Amino acid sequence: MATVKQNIQTDSLSNGARGLSGMVETFIDNYFKAHEGLTPTSGLYDRVIQEVERPLLKATLKSVRGNQKKAAEILGINRNTLRKRLTDLQIDLSEL
User: Fold this and answer.
1) What's the predicted TM-score (pTM) here?
2) pLDDT tens digit string along 28-72?
3) Are 26 and 17 in contact (CB under 8 A)?
4) Half-sphere exposure of 51 toward its Cβ, with a 13 Å CA cutoff?
């Protein structure tokens, strides 16, 4: 397990980021710079959370071949919460 964690950290660092939070921070900084001093429209928090949550759920489910119980355990959330998020985000399990 430590080797996997080390590999993830090494991959992130080799990409010039400080892990996932560094990559997200860089993206958000670039997002604001792209607006050239103008304020983005409201709802940024929800958009960012959705953009991160969707691929997280899909990748986790794909890694466990759609097993929602295992995915919920990996994510550290209740299976019912996972199901609700899948519905809310309109994630089609048949596409995984």
Assistant:
1) 0.71
2) 999 999 998 898 889 999 989 988 999 999 999 999 999 999 999
3) yes
4) 9
∠ CA 59-62-20, rounded to 5°: 15
- CA gap 94, 67 in Å, rounded: 12
Q: How far is 56 from 61, CA to CA, in rounded Å?
A: 9
Domains (range + CATH), the chain? 1-40 (no CATH), 44-96 (1.10.10.60)
Q: How distant, in Å, are the alpha carbons of 22, 25, 37, 96 from that of 82?
A: 26, 26, 38, 15
82-96, pLDDT tens digit by residue?
999 999 999 999 988
**Contact indicator for 82, 72 with CB cutoff of 8 Å:** yes
